[in-house]
Design brief:
Length: about 250
C-alpha cells in the first residue's frame, strides 16, 4: 500500500477510519504513524496528495486530505480477457491495475469453463478491492474500468459501439495456436505511441480460442500474435502482454 486511497464520500464526511479498517491498521502498525504525521493519500479515481492524521482515538483514525495532483493517468490499453479460474482473477486484477491499463473486459469464451462466469467476485466487491489494491501498490489513484460480457461477440459489439473513431486503434489477439506474427515484432511495425493511440489486446482463458472466435476477432481487425512457444497462465499472459505493449509505447 504505497498510497492510502479513500472514496470522495469518506473524505467529505470527515468520519474516522474504523480501528479494524485495513488502512487504519496500515497507518498505525505498518507505517507507525501517529497524530500529526503525514502520508501519501488520494481519492479513488480522483486527485492525489497528502493525508494528515489529526487524531487517533477509540473511534479510529481521523484524517484530513490536501489534494495536490491529478494522480497518475491510466494508459490507453484495453484488455479483453477470457474468464479465468476465480482464484486467478484477484491476481489478474491487481497486476493489471498496477500496470495501469484503462479497461478490463472479461468475457465468456467457447472453450472456457462456464462455471467461472458465475463467480461472485464482482458482486461481493472483491474485484473492486483487488483493482484498488493494485492501484495503491502502483501509488496511483485511478482504477481501471471493469466490464463483464457473456461472449466474445457481445464484448466486441460493445467495444465497437464505444470506440472513438477519431483515435488510432491497434488490435491484437494473443494466440499460440495460429499466430501470424509475434506480439513484439507486430508492435515494432506499428510505431505505437500513446498519444492518440489505443491498444486492444485479447487474451484467452486457459483453453484458448476457437476458430470461430478467431474469425470474429479477425473481422474486427485483430492481428493474431504469439508470445513464444510456451503456454502461459491467463494472468501471466496479461502481465507479459501488457508489459510488451507499454514498452512499445515507451511508457516503461
Amino acid at each position: 500500500m504505497n498510497i492510502v486511497l479513500f472514496t470522495k464520500e469518506e473524505i467529505d464526511s470527515g468520519k474516522p477510519l474504523p480501528p479494524r479498517d485495513e488502512r487504519a491498521k496500515h497507518l498505525l502498525k505498518v507505517l507507525h504513524k501517529s497524530a500529526g504525521d503525514t502520508f501519501d493519500a488520494g481519492i479513488i479515481n480522483g486527485m492525489a496528495g497528502t493525508g494528515t492524521i489529526t487524531a487517533v482515538d477509540d473511534d479510529g483514525v481521523h484524517v484530513s486530505f490536501e489534494a495536490q495532483t491529478d494522480g497518475k493517468p491510466l494508459y490507453p490499453v484495453v484488455l479483453i480477457v477470457g474468464f479465468p479460474r476465480p482464484i486467478q482473477l484477484k491476481r489478474l486484477f491487481r497486476d493489471a491495475a498496477g500496470l495501469g491499463v484503462s479497461r478490463i473486459c472479461l468475457c465468456g469464451t467457447e472453450l472456457g469453463e462456464k462455471s467461472y462466469r458465475d463467480s461472485t467476485i464482482v458482486e461481493r466487491g472483491a474485484a473492486l478491492a483487488a483493482l484498488t489494491d493494485g492501484t495503491a501498490q502502483a501509488k496511483s489513484t485511478h482504477v481501471p474500468e471493469l466490464e463483464l460480457y457473456d461472449s466474445v461477440a457481445d464484448c466486441l459489439a460493445a467495444l465497437k459501439d464505444s470506440r472513438q473513431e477519431d483515435s488510432r486503434q491497434i488490435r491484437v489477439l494473443l494466440d499460440n495456436i495460429k499466430p501470424e506474427n509475434t506480439l513484439y515484432h507486430y508492435l515494432q511495425g506499428q510505431s505505437v505511441t500513446p498519444a492518440g493511440c489505443t491498444v486492444y489486446a485479447a487474451i484467452g482463458s486457459e483453453r484458448g480460442w476457437t476458430d470461430h472466435e478467431r474469425d470474429q476477432f479477425r473481422k474486427e481487425g485483430y492481428a493474431l500474435c504469439s508470445m513464444g512457444q510456451r503456454v502461459l497462465r491467463t494472468e501471466t499472459a496479461v502481465t507479459v502482454a501488457t508489459t510488451l505493449i507499454l514498452q512499445a509505447m515507451e511508457l516503461v
